[in-house]
Each structure stands twice: as structure tokens, then as C-alpha cells.
Model the fold of this input.
Amino acid sequence: MQGNVLDITTENRHLNGVMRPALIICAVMAVIGFGGALFLANTTEHGIEYLLETYLVSFAFFLAISLGGLFFVLLQHCTRAGWSVVVRRVAEAVAANVWVMAALAVPVVYGIHHLYHWADAGAAAHDPLLAAKAGFLNPSFFIIRLVIYFLVWGVMASFLLRTSVAQDASGDPKLTLRMERLSAPGMILFALTINFAAFDILMSLDPHWFSTIFGVYYFSVSIVAFLAVMPKILYALQMRGVLPNAITVEHYHDFGKLLFGFNVFWAYIAFSQYMLIWYANIPEETEWFLKRQTGEWATVSLILIFGHFVLPFLLLVSRVIKRRPLLLAITGGYVAAMCWVDVYWLVIPEFSPGVARFGLLDVLCFLGMNGVFSAALVLRMRRHSVIAEKDPRLEESLAFENA
Amino acid sequence: MSATYTNAHSYLDNTGDDPAVRAKLVVGDNDFHSVTEKVCGVVERPQPKIWWVVFAISSSLTLVLLATIAYLITTGIGVWGLMVPVGWGYAIVNFVFWVGIGHAGTLISAILFLLRQRWRTSINRFAEGMTIIAVVCAGIFPGIHVGRVWVAYWMAPIPNQMSMWPNFRSPLLWDVFAVGTYATVSLLFWYMGMIPDLATLRDRAKTKIRFYAYGILSLGWRSSNRHWHRFEFAYLLLAALATPLVLSVHSVVSFDFAVSIMPGWHTTIFPPYFVAGAIFSGFAMVVTLVIPVRKIYGLEEIITARHLENMAKIMLATSMMVGFAYSTEFFVAWYSGNTYEAFTFMNRAFGPYAWAYWTMVTCNVLVPQFFWFKRFRTKTVLLWIASVLINVGMWFERFVIVVSSLSRDYLPTSWGYYRPSIIDILTFLGSFGLFFTLFLLFIRFLPIVGMAEVKGVMPQAHLDRPGHRGHGDYHGDIGGAEVLS
Done:
């Protein structure tokens, strides 16, 4: 149709063997990370408890990445986006990793009695507030809800990935229509599940505290974390000769723009939550922020303001970094790290008031989960082409330019 | 292949789904000249009878507004239905209602521009005009609510010999800044985007007055390469600056409520929830206005069925966001274990204002559900009715928030039931008069479709060529700046 559009069949579209070193690194990370963390936890006092807590941080962080991927894919279909077709398959794979997160949720359920104060049956007896919520906050209903969330996410992600892969063979544009039509109601399911998942997994760590925006906050974490890691994944693929020409600087530029925009969105949501609670100054709400501005946590809060908002804002506002894939990948990695700090800041103050005891255990646990998550992603992407080969809008995506 | 997906009822139908084909944004046998003819014709030809009829009605209503304001100022706030405990009534409801409507324009012209939604070109001028006018209507209400309007300038932080300053801790003052900034930037954006089209009107002028009026307004625009280059750059910059404003205005408006410790007001989801509601109502108003206008002035080939369908989809999406916020609030009111919060929500749904609450839910959440079906998105009559109902629902949303919370607060002895006075109702109706009067004048004197932008997304602009798929609105070969890659 168009003269100078890239012929996709000339590209290397499969991970045949090129990812073996990466897989080995992932396996080593997983073994050293989880193994080391377990060893360390067993040999220190309260080690297992600390491990459970930091495990929840990394779990919520990697879950956020896959949910961000799921949202991204749903959004591309809802808006009939053209620019993103060449990178959508990778996002679909990230989203489908939510199944791995379902498996990784087992230790959270195992540690429910340590992590969630409300899971302690005796606690409600002395606490009328917990007793009132017991119909919602109880272990069996919590587990049922987790199963429902993961089923909803997993089925949606698998459907989107599988339909897209099926189109690689048939090229049937009706499959695109099918995905578009189902993505709209899918978006509603997504909004409901991520909202309640955020309430369950993170907000209920302090079962007395409540904030209606909390689900939106976790959503903003998830989309920022996803957009932050995407340039890194794409760059890693291109470095190994996969899709060297199909993914262009224009796609990186768009990821940079979206990352900038959603990072500001995160700050907007975080500010809204803080401002309203601070201003109204009601003890039952401020206690949550008081924990986070007491002792060392005050420093972490400042790190978030300057490190998660101000610095990425300054870095990403100009096109200099956005149009340089390596720099964008590095900046994205940094923003992703800040997202992890954000989740850390959501979780750990509940267990360790005043002391931000960041240490080797946190790093090992993160590495372990990173190894499993990344290995699962590579293994998934190996099964099919890494680009939606016969998407009707592929040419548009290949040819598009930011003016 | 495209025949499989597009139904060929009419050449006006460009709502086909074929994913391999981007829909035409201008249908029919149009070229650059015919677009100019059609859009300029609205301004240059005598106005149809219906324009005069509506203008007569709306300008009369404007007089009602002026009369009620005069009565209010000479008599006092007591002419309104305000009472203890409901100290905020229609005026604040109307303020939030109009500011909300004033959100679609800048969203379309700034955010949709950054998101490369080319279809925005046909409707952005129209929506921006509506935005400015809605903000004018909004500004009246807090202005007259201050009681002594002759000292309303005290809201501005002007150094004075009394060393008297506004209360910077008050969200009402933040509103002054937020709405002021928004109005300024929206006005600039609107005007700047209009300059090329004003120049077109100037060049076609047949009378001296027209020539000089449009000549002055078009600031010496000559459509040179350099002009276009700077224009596009300024447009991009203003779009980037206006984008956060779209969110900030209604966030600050939501602070008016949410920073207080009033049950039903103090909830952290308010800022994004208000923004979603504002976009929802703004699009509903655009649809309400654009359907008759495109019909009367024969602009169906430029503001096409697809534009209406897209707006219906945005209304569906924002309706779901608003419904999501309603249910989250309800859930957390229970989850929080806060008796007052839980009471407020039960009271909204089943108390004395239940009629208003269920009107709101019906119009804002149930009615838009019809937009899941293409028939409702593409049948203009149904779409128009739905958009009017959404406007009603969004007014009631603000009514529910303001009045139901205030009428029954912590102390049952001070509960009351608010009823608007006739002056309240007339002032509100009068604000519609002002809105429509200004809007009709806008149609009469200014280009209601961004001609230069629409031309940029027509096939004649060759945007489908590789290397021309960028921002799409201006870039490419408009203004003779064609560079083939």
C-alpha cells in the first residue's frame, strides 16, 4: 500500500535462542534472590516476618506492572490506537504475566495472619471497628476475592494475547473488532477489580484507615510502573537483534510522553489524597500519613516527592531523553525503582513505625521476584512472534512519526 | 473489504468499523473550497429564522438574569432560598454545573490534540466557544454570592492601605485563581486557534466594517510559512499548558467541598471524580448544541455521524467513571465504619432528597448505558435526548452533593429542608439565557468550525502518506511546508 513501509517479514520477530543468556541470568537472580532471602530470614530474628512484609512490597509492585500492561492493551483496543501496534504484543505478554503473579500470591495468603491484622480472629473481639468490617475483611472472603481478581485479570489477558496471536496466522480483521468490542466492558471489570484489589491487598494493611481514592492511587502506580519498564524491555529486545527496525524512536518517544503524563497523574492523585486528609485533619484519617512522616519515613516521603515526581518531570519534559532509547530505558528503570519505593512506603510503615529498615533482605526478595517475573515473560514471548504480525493497523504503526 | 464493515445506508455514514481503514472525517464531495464556503457561509449569509427566534427567547431570559441579579443586589441574599443549615444552594450548584460544562472545550482542543485524535478538528472550535461562555456563566454565581458585590475585587490579592488580604487558606479563593487561569488560557487558546480562520473571513469580506473588524482580529495573518510554523509551535505549547488546567480547575472546585469535614463532602476521590463528571457534562452539552447546529447550518458533512458517535463513547466512558465514584463512595462510607458518613449516603439514597439522588443516578449512570448500542450512538434524536438528560443528571449531581449533605449534618436539631425561591429558579433559567445568547452571537460572528484544522485532516492534505502521520492536525503539507521523507 505504501512505498516505504518496512516489510515486517525481513525482521527478526522471534526470540529463538537469543534470550538464553537472559534466561540464565533470570534463573540465577531467582535462585540467589529467593534462596538468599529465605536463608537470611531464617538466620535472623523476626526474619520470616520481615521477609513476608517485603515480599508483599515486591508482589504488589510486579502485580502493578502486569496490571498496567493489561490496562494498556485494553486501552489500545478501546481507542483503536494505531501507533502502538508494533509494541502491543510485548504489552500483551506483560499482561499475561498476571498468571505468574497469581502463583506468587500464595505466600501472601500463607502470611495472611502476620500481614493483615484483621485476619486475627481475636483482634475483632476487642475492636468494634474491625468487628463491623468482619463481613468483608475475613480470611476466607479475602481469598475468594483474590481468586476472583486473578481469574478476571488472567482470563482477560489470555483472551487478548491468544486472539492477537491467532490473528498472526489468519490475519482476520474480525479478531481486531472482537478485541475492541470486548475491551470496553473489560475496562469496567478492570476498574472494579484493581480498585478492590488495592483496598484488599494494600489499604487493609491498616484496617482502620480508608481513602476512596486509594484504588485510583494503585492504578496510577500500575500504569506508571508499566510505562516505565516498557522502554527497557523494548531496548533489551532490540539489543539482541529482535525487531531492530520495526520499533522506532517514535515509539520510544510516545512511551516517554505517556510516562511523563502518567507520572504527573500519579503526583496529582497522591497530592489529592494527601491534601484533603491533611487539610481536614481528622485523626482517623491522618494517622496513616502521620506514620509516614514520622522518623525515617519522613525522609522516604521526601524521596518520593523529589525522586518520583520532580526529577522525572524535569528529565522527561524535554524530548532529549524521550527520543534516545537507551536514556529512556535508564530513566524508565529509575522511575520503576521509584514506584517500588512508593509501594514500600505504602506497606512497610505499617509494620515498622519510624524505621525504614531497608536492607539486603528487600533487595534479595526483589531480585528473586524480578527473576521469576522476567523469566516468565521471556518464556511467554518465546512461544510466538513478538509483534502482532497481521494486525490491520500494523502499517500505520510502522510508519507513524511524531512531528 | 471495507464494504463488509461499513453499512452503505448513506454517504453521510462514516461510522464503519473496518480496522484497516481510518474513517473519513469529512464526508461527501468536499474540497478545501467547499469547506470554506460552508463554514464561512454560517457567518456571511443571513441567519435563518430559527436563529432569531431562539435569540429573542434567550436574550429575554438574559434580561431576567439581569433583573434577578439587580433585585438580589438591592435587596440581599435573603431573596434566595438559603437557610440554616443549607447555606449553599442554587448559586453554588449552578457555579459547579457551568464550570463543569466548560471542560469539554479545552479537553478537546488540548488533550485530544496531544493524543493525536484528529476527529477533534471538526468540533474543537465549537466546544471551545461553548467552554468560554459556560465559564462566563459560572463566574457570575460566586460573584453575586459574596453579598456585597461592589467589594468582590477583594477576592484578588491587591495590596491595599488596610493591609487586608483574602484568606489564602480558603478553597474558595483557590477557585478564583483556578477558574481565572483556566478562563485566561482557554480564551487565549481559542482566539489563537481562530486567527487563520479570521483571516479567511477577512479575505472574503465584502463590506468595510467586516474587513476592518476581522482584519484587526486576525492580527495581520498572511498564511506565510513562518506564520504557520510559529502558529503550530504556539498551539502545541498552549496545548501542553492547558492540559493540566483541564484537571486542575475541577479538582480545585472539588476542594471547595472535600477539604471540609462535612460527611458526603470530605472524601479523597473527589478531585478525579469531579474532573470525570465535568468532562461528562461538557461533552453532553457539546452534543446538545452541535446536533441542532449541524442540521440547521448544513454542516453534517463536516461534523459527521462519527464525531457524534465518538462523543457518545466518551460520554459512556466518563459516565462509567462517575458511576464508579458513586459506588466507591458508597462502599467506603460503609467500610470506614464512620456513622455520619454511612448515614449521609443512606440519607441521600432514601432520605428526603431521594428523588434528586435517583434522578441523578438514572440520568448519569443508567441513560448512558444505551450508548453501548450503536443505534443509540448514531441516531441523532436519541443521542440528543440522552445528552439533555445527562445535563439534567449532572446538575442534580451537584444539587445532591451540596444540598443533601448540608441539610442533614451532625446535629439533628438543626436539620432542615432546602427549597429554592422563585428568584433562585429565575436566576438559573436566566443563566441559560445568557449562555444561549452568547452562543448565538458566537455562531453569528465567528467561524464555528476550525476550517484550517479540518482541511489538515482531509485526504487532500495527503496525511495518509508515510512520513505525514504525525500529530496530524497541522503538520505536513499545510501552508506549503511539505517535506517528503
Remarks:
- Residues 8-398 of chain A form one domain.
